[in-house]
User: Fold these one by one.
Assistant:
Number 1:
Amino acid sequence: MIPIGNATDARSRLLAAAVESFAARGFHGTTTRDIASAAGMSPAALYVHYKSKEDLLYLISRNGHAQTLQLVREAVGSSNDPVEQLLAVVRAFTIHHARGHTSARIVNYELAALSPDHLKEIAAIRRGIEKEMRGVVEAGAAVGAFRTSSPQMTALALLSLGIDVARWYRDEGEWGPEKIADYYCELALRLVGAQREPPTMETATTLSSGTTAPQTRAVLPDQTRISST
Amino acid sequence: MIPIGNATDARSRLLAAAVESFAARGFHGTTTRDIASAAGMSPAALYVHYKSKEDLLYLISRNGHAQTLQLVREAVGSSNDPVEQLLAVVRAFTIHHARGHTSARIVNYELAALSPDHLKEIAAIRRGIEKEMRGVVEAGAAVGAFRTSSPQMTALALLSLGIDVARWYRDEGEWGPEKIADYYCELALRLVGAQREPPTMETATTLSSGTTAPQTRAVLPDQTRISST
DNA sequence: CTTATTTCTAAGCGTTTGCTTAGTCTTCCC
DNA sequence: GGGAAGACTAAGCAAACGCTTAGAAATAAG
């Protein structure tokens, strides 16, 4: 079989091969021989670098979850305005699940194959991610920027939309990760019931000092802003 | 192992056992011995009633997809008003994926385990489901009841939300299928940019008689309509 | 050079896999 | 009763499974 990825060290090649295989056929549908041969090695080579097949899954899952949590935290930390936070989180989360759909599929759909101990550890990271999203929606609701009767369920729906991108996204599709993310940002504003003006505290002066380019701030115009490019 | 389900005929017990097993551990994570013993039978009994393990998956998947398509079509057929159609579809779809999360997990996450021929057949049903949802959003957009720049992507997001319920739903959770469906109906109205009032009987005829009737109304109600029960 | 260490393979161990075979038991029709 | 048909099991087969062993090859240090 053709070795996967550009020739780096064997350890990385095995990991990349495992990601591809687990994503394509699932953990239980993948054999250690699949992984080894996709990395251009003999079956035994896997055990020089990794303890077991489950260990590979654990490392992939932990790394993927940690990445996601970090990306969400950075997005939330990028602003004090809930609207900006929401947009940053949804954009980053969506792009991550589209561009990284291969590993995201393992992260989100192979949890049951983890050992009980490993699952417990991963579940804690997932709760961290959910907590961040809930925090953004609650903050927006608290300052009147969002109108939602259940921030908890709305946050769940927002995560749900992003996660499911990993399921349906195809590289051959017409919509690329950025375009999907743009659209999902608009959908997110609708979901949380974003109000026209960010109502509180400082106005545009402090807000425009953010890292990202200050977009026009009419949150929900009569004509939808959703890009059609 | 304890036999699954109330003692009906062996064939049904095997099918129910397969649904439980596939949903819990995935197709490849389930052995034919798991299924047989969960149905309280010997491993060979499975082959009296089914051709193969994959045949069981196929039957479960086909039945589940057919059910979903039917439910979506009935919902769309229940009204001529796109708003009502949307609410009916989202409600039925959401409840289906919550209450039937076990089989819905197989339907949505075990497609890769189907044989190529079976997958082709199932994919056709899935396209039918997508077509129905897209039709509703497009119809709503056409009569000015919805505001969305991409009915296609909005329809995808609506399906996405519903499908992902099967992933996160837990029977022990606080929110039951109906309550989630109520909430998701409100979210759906926001997603499609539903205009303020679903047309009443009188206005409906008036509005639908005109070709466009571009209602310049507020995109979202100032007070959220999401029920807080 | 020798020696130690690391990376990898060929071979294969013991178990589990999907599925088959051969035969038993029950049911139903005559 | 006899006999056919269907439902089921005990036993097991060939292949595939996760993983180990023994040793070769390569590298580096003294």
Number 2:
Amino acid sequence: MTIGEIARRARVSRSTVSYALSGKRPVSEATRLRIQRVIDEMGYQPNASARALARGETRTLGLVFPPASTHYTDMQLDFIGGLVDAAAVRDYDVLMSPGGAEDRTFHRLIGERRVDGAILMEIRLQDARVDRMRATGFPFVTIGRTAQPDGTSWVDLDHGRLVQHCVQHLAQLGHRRLALVNRSEELIRAGYESARRGQDGFERALAEHELTGRSYQCGDDAASGEACVERILSDDPGVTGIVTLNEAALGGLYRGLGTAGREIPRDMSVTGIVGSRWAEAVTPALTAADVPSREMGRIAIDLLLERIGPSAAPLRHRLLTPPISLRASTGPAAP
Amino acid sequence: MTIGEIARRARVSRSTVSYALSGKRPVSEATRLRIQRVIDEMGYQPNASARALARGETRTLGLVFPPASTHYTDMQLDFIGGLVDAAAVRDYDVLMSPGGAEDRTFHRLIGERRVDGAILMEIRLQDARVDRMRATGFPFVTIGRTAQPDGTSWVDLDHGRLVQHCVQHLAQLGHRRLALVNRSEELIRAGYESARRGQDGFERALAEHELTGRSYQCGDDAASGEACVERILSDDPGVTGIVTLNEAALGGLYRGLGTAGREIPRDMSVTGIVGSRWAEAVTPALTAADVPSREMGRIAIDLLLERIGPSAAPLRHRLLTPPISLRASTGPAAP
DNA sequence: TTGAAAGCGGTACCAC
DNA sequence: GTGGTACCGCTTTCAA
């Protein structure tokens, strides 16, 4: 079923059908109705590829994220959900593209103009994908910000400040010896921004509150979390407060503490930056800064559409600092 | 940068450039090299929309899933990850489309021919989307199967059998009074197939082993899990075994049991069908049939590409029955 | 108010 | 081995 077919049956030209559909030119009520009848009868819908070619826009947005070496985290996945839903509301589809800057699929997305704009996840402080995108002038938004965040649109959590808040919370409860459970060594070495900025925030906060503490790298799974607790306690059995950036290791962290005979929050306070689903799944429920993943997805879409549209983009970025939700995993330090 | 531009610079016709790229017609080594040089210089990549229009295929697959009323479960999201990765390996992109049969985005995907084929998630026993797809003759694969599974391609977990295995496992440990923690009331009422077939399997298994038991509907979150435990124990304090289909409520289930003073597995054995990430996150780790979400994604892609390609599709469906991974949450019933 | 026709950027058939 | 050209299906300018 093509527009030509519709035109023939409605005894008008193809252009008239097109205009009847788009409304970009007045069409007499009589012919409009006649055309609409035929369209409904035939169940016609314009071909997206043809339209994209003619209009020069695809009404599709790209989501670029690194291939999952192991698993995606809940945060990432909720974020994707929020993003896709938000795009759908605005009549955009989302094309998923695993792959880094050198990747085939990345080339496909941008180079072949499969999408009108892109969202980049899992940003590193130095990020080749961002550099490439800037060079091409292609509209894009990042989740997370590079070391030079000006000149790009982004939405990000203020991991530095959030970790500081967590430390502050523990400090106010009287804890003096802390540990930070960060993401995996590879991610940190790769310059993964949330891990790096979280770590910086931890160190700053320790200095500020005159506390002692140490950072640990930890894989994104329960077993790593368990192992991490062992390291923490063997390095310094006097630790009474843990801040975690590692959602997927949380269950293991709890188990490790249980195995070591440390009860939460009596013997050990735990807090961190974690999606609410995980925070509420563990017992005792985790006092944490809840990651507003879905909202971040929505914001990313808004920022991107701003840059795609004809209007100048007034707001370029959003730095979020969600409050700490008090649950049950932190308590006063033993005197 | 268009193919015409490349042709001009390489002093050949557009068709020659096209053939040099596709290899569908021999091109002399000399001109091939000349063309390639220009292409590399200019960084040319063919426009996807134009190519899709000319070839009549988009090299894009659609993923249709209901909009997240609340959250996606881990299973769903891991599944998406596996699917996207598998598609990328085969040089396909994946277009995400939240929305049911009546939805705008569903129309867009199929009607506008944005994709060459589609994968439908969250299948119901009677599913309007499946009916529509079959009517259009559009290639598609479902995750989960309808009440009449013949004539469609699908990949599914054998929830009925898996629940039976879980019950059997508990029966062998001497448990006589069981409870099934299913998904939410809405989902079950909507005819959500895994929930329905799981429930059927539970009832069959109870009869087979001459056990008593009861099914519970439970929302996809920790709080619902906690509430569900209360209901179970107030209905029958003698229950010593729980089978759960509800991944997202698992943490709450554990907490509820803890609150009720039931220790796992001493006072209560728990098992079910759950992704390994969740199974390993809880303490004690859950003995469960691990949902192979990522692999299911891969299989779905394979099945779909089979149906899209020119070759006849030999295999139409895959019913998976992963083994129960023994962990730490089940034990013998008290004598 | 409507129609004809020239694009959009490729592909592939028909010639030579 | 290569060039010319008619498509693919839709949008939009130009003309009537």
